[in-house]
Amino acid sequence: MAKKEKNNTLNLFKDCENNRKEILYYESKGNPKLYTKPHSHQFFTLILIETNEEGYHLIGEEKHPVKGMQLHYLFPDQLHYWEVGPETKIYQLMINNTNFELIKLALRFNQSFYEKNPVINLTQKYFDYLLYEFKEIGRELNSDLILFEMICSRIRIILQKASKIIERQLPSASIDVYFSSSIIYAFLNLIDIHYREERELTFYAKKLNVTANYLGILCKKHLNQPGNKVIKTRLILEAKRRLVVPALSIKEIAFDLGFKEQAHFTNFFKSATGMTPSEFRMNIHKQ
Asked: Which of 45, 38, 102 lies closest to 73 in space, CA to CA?
């Protein structure tokens, strides 16, 4: 074999091994043995569940009942924990941040929407459809030469199909807000990207090529709240997510969310929730 051809082959195998680490697929029954307490991952995770037993999936601060056939969404850094029966079947697709950036446009709604609605109940028809795609991805990841674009395409199909299911299940009023105005849709997506460092409506208005006044009018019309409050709500949601994780200090959370002083974060959080971050954390861990 020529040296150049040999190097190309070695690089191809190296790429395949990297892809295996970047997208993971697991099948399991019952509670995973590796984790016995709430934990988080640096992956976007899609989880299919099939069960006749009672259980729950803790995501952030909320427990979601596990029943029948479901699809769960889990975003990077979200704390989660399982408590399910021994015969509960769990199928997981874990996608690292780099690859998530490649496929996230297939998500029909913005991240905060999925964080508020992380569980979809499925019919047998839709469960079988999604499970087929999950297993095909698993087979491809176990092959000698991985067709990485095929895997990404299948993940996009899963996300798009799931979006259609969501639209059929949720009240039209909660869905229409995302599509009644293209500007509002773009605004919500921009918040997911910039909320840590940009909290003024003028920044987003400039990005959207509209005036801050007009964007504010649209927020009141379509979201029933002022634009600055929409940004603040997203920041509070992220703060709560992080406060649930015991390993993160309040000071670390404050700096990571763009606050120069912990005291500023404490005042901001208390004004929105009526509790200091410490009080919120204590209440969560008492539950």
From this structure: 45
Q: Express each pLDDT in 161-172 by its tens digit.
A: 998 888 887 765
On whether residue 3 sits in a domain, the answer given is: no
Full residue range of the structural domain in which residue 217 is found? 177-286
In a domain, 126, yes or no: yes
The reported pTM is 0.69
- Closest by CA to 149, choosing from 160, 137, 161, is 137
Residue located via tokens 């849709």: 185
Q: 194 and 160, same structural domain?
A: no
Q: What is the DSSP letter of 39?
A: B
Structurally, how many domains does the chain consist of?
2
Give pLDDT tens digits for 29-42. Answer: 987 665 667 788 88
Query: Looking at the structure, do residues 230 and 254 belong to the same domain, yes or no?
Result: yes
Residue 106's identity, in one-letter code, is: A
Q: CB-hemisphere CA count at 13 Å for 167?
A: 13
Give the start-end residues of each E strand in 18-102. Answer: 23-29, 43-59, 62-74, 80-83, 89-96
How many whole angstroms separate alpha carbon 62 and alpha carbon 78? 11
**147 neighbors 140 (Cβ within 8 angstroms):** yes
How many other CB atoms sit within 10 Å of the CB of residue 37? 7
Q: Are residues 46 and 156 in the same domain?
A: yes
Q: Are 108 and 250 part of one and the same domain?
A: no
Judgement on whether residues 203 and 244 belong to the same structural domain of the protein? yes
Give the torsion through C-alpha atoms of 143, 148, 149, 152, to 10 deg.
100
Whole-angstrom Cα distance, residue 42 to residue 22?
Answer: 10
